[in-house]
């Protein structure tokens, strides 16, 4: 299998191409993002301008920003960082019934010691259970989509209710990279279609749904902006883990996004075993280009399994029980054809057209250029089923 000369992106990734030097288009996307958002003095200056704007707009409010927290290192350290820069954040957590005990304790430890208010939004478990089962029955690769969409919707909802204009998120393209759209693209239209087609008759009464019109309304009329501080700052995940452990008693939970048990199942079991997808190739490649690890270290990590087989089977059994799936039902789901995200209706093409046509309006929705927009410029945007 052909592997990128600079990272560990390979031919298993949809839409990948290589130039005459063996460098992939995903590598060029990563390099473009790094050039667009330099760190060091320039990044710090850009971040300080954002901090000044956040403080000014929120000066007469209880909170000047909102931070989504999961108990993972990225969001936990972001709380620490915000307070260091004199911000007054409200922490928001989504409870989908799968948060690990370690993650819950991490959130409590950090928010308590920093004296940050925490708001937890709990989805009726029957609803999220039905949605996650529906995504599995649909044969979707990223079955944790209902959680991802709910997190974003909850942040917009709380920001609007509290009159907060800035949402800070712990995403970091230098450690996460850009996943191919065939694996992870999602929106409300697709979620409702999958739930109607593969779910039961359980109504989504507590599930927070963020439609495209609602997001545009929140951004353009309410002035709510989505900010990614790690795009600008010299953030080192390993150093952050050490600091959080020393200052707050924060505990590591294992792999990337393993603070949520269903997310862990999705990444370590569902994707590699059913689809042959290893999302670590994207994450590790980004870290190689950011000089966080070497290419040899990335290849060594990829040669290792996510976990011992016995541990993976215990996790599968736990998730199966938690979703109330019998062995027969899980077997049918597992044997069903694997799909990609564009096998079902979505707003992808509409969103692409709007983002291309109304680029100036994106500045009122985001404090940065979304990586998806840059990806559409660098990668092949044609939908491939």
Write the layout of secondary structure elements.
Elements: H1 25-36, H2 40-57, E1 65-68, H3 73-84, E2 89-95, H4 101-114, E3 118-122, H5 125-137, H6 145-162, E4 166-168, H7 173-176, H8 181-184, H9 188-198, H10 212-220, E5 225-227, H11 237-248, H12 261-275, H13 280-289, H14 295-302, H15 309-322, H16 327-335, H17 348-357, H18 359-362, H19 371-378
Parallel strand pairs: 1-2, 1-4, 2-3, 4-5
Helix pairs in contact: 1-19, 3-4, 3-11, 5-9, 12-15
Q: Give me the CATH superfamily.
A: HUPs
- How many strands, which pairing sense, and closed or not: the largest β-sheet? 5 strands, parallel
Secondary structure tally: strands: 5
How widely separated are the two ends?
21 Å
Poorly predicted runs of 5 or more residues? none
Shape: globular
Task: Give the oligomeric state.
Answer: single chain
- Per CATH, the architecture is 3-Layer(aba) Sandwich
Question: Which CATH class is shown?
Answer: Alpha Beta
Count of helix runs: 19
Number of domains: 1
Q: Classify the helix fraction into a percent range.
A: 40-55%
Q: Any idea of the CATH topology?
A: Rossmann fold
Output the radius of gyration. Answer: 20 Å
Order of helices and strands: HHEHEHEHHEHHHHEHHHHHHHHH
Protein name: N-acetyl sugar amidotransferase
InterPro entries: N-acetyl_sugar_amidoTrfase, Rossmann-like_a/b/a_fold
Brief digest:
With 385 residues, the protein is mostly helical. It has 19 helices and five strands. Helix 1 (25-36) crosses helix 19 (371-378), helix 3 crosses helix 11 and helix 5 packs across helix 9 (188-198).
């Amino acid at each position: 299998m052909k592997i990128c000369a600079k990272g560990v992106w390979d031919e298993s990734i949809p839409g990948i191409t290589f130039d005459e030097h063996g460098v992939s288009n995903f590598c060029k996307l990563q390099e473009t993002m790094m050039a667009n958002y330099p760190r060091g003095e320039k990044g710090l200056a850009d971040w300080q301008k954002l901090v000044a704007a956040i403080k000014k707009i929120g000066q007469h409010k209880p909170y000047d920003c909102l931070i989504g927290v999961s108990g993972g290192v990225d969001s936990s350290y972001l709380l620490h960082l915000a307070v260091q820069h004199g911000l007054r954040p409200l922490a928001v957590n989504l409870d989908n019934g799968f948060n690990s005990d370690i993650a819950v304790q991490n959130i409590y430890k950090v928010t308590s010691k920093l004296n940050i208010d925490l708001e937890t939004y709990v989805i009726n478990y029957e609803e999220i259970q039905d949605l996650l089962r529906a995504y599995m029955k649909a044969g979707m690769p990223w079955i944790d989509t209902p959680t991802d969409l709910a997190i974003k919707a909850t942040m917009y909802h709380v920001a609007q209710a509290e009159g907060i204009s800035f949402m800070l998120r712990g995403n970091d393209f230098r450690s996460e990279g850009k996943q191919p759209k065939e694996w992870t693209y999602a929106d409300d239209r697709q979620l409702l279609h999958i739930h109607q087609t593969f779910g039961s008759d359980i109504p989504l009464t507590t599930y927070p749904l963020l439609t495209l019109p609602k997001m545009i309304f929140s951004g353009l009329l309410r002035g709510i902006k989505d900010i990614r501080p790690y795009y600008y700052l010299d953030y080192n995940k390993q150093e952050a883990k050490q600091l959080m452990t020393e200052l707050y008693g924060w505990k590591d939970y294992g792999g990337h996004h393993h603070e949520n048990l269903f997310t862990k199942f999705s990444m370590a079991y569902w994707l590699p075993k059913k689809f042959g997808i290893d999302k670590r190739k994207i994450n590790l490649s980004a870290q190689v280009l950011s000089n966080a690890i070497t290419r040899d270290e990335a290849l060594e990590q990829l040669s290792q399994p996510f976990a011992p087989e016995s541990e993976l089977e215990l996790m599968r059994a736990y998730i199966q029980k938690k979703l109330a799936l019998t062995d027969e039902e899980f077997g049918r789901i597992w044997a069903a054809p694997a799909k990609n995200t564009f096998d079902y209706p979505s707003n992808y093409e509409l969103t692409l057209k709007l983002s291309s046509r109304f680029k100036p309006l994106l500045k009122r929705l985001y404090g940065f250029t979304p990586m998806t927009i840059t990806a559409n410029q660098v990668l092949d945007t044609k939908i491939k089923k």
